[in-house]
Amino acid sequence: MYLIRRTYKTKPYEAVNVAKLVKEQANLYTSLGQRSETRVYYNNGTNPGDPNRVYLEWTADIFDNPSREGNEIPKEVYELGAKYRPLLDTSDGPSNWIEFWTILEE
Length: 106
Fold this sequence. Notes:
The protein has about 110 residues and is an alpha+beta fold. The protein has helices at about 15-30, 75-85; strands at about 1-10, 40-45, 55-60, 95-100. It has one domain: 2-Layer Sandwich (Alpha-Beta Plaits), CATH 3.30.70.100. Helix 1 (about 15-30) runs antiparallel to helix 2 (about 75-85).
């Protein structure tokens, strides 16, 4: 089992707005059966840790390429991405990245 975490670096004080849009996008993937239940959390700069960050995570048994044959991504997914993309910070390196972690099973 794997934990997949995508991190978004936002413009100052936009983390909550990005988090809402990312959660809506993630819920769409879940409703289509393309992703397990997700968790979205963020830091607008008022908590310890990296400010202006949004985190999306979910679990998966295998790594699936979203561009795989037969997988259809609805236009709503792209539309939601277009809404939060201008709120991401691209001034110093990537505005988002993805990590893959192996979950320790007992």
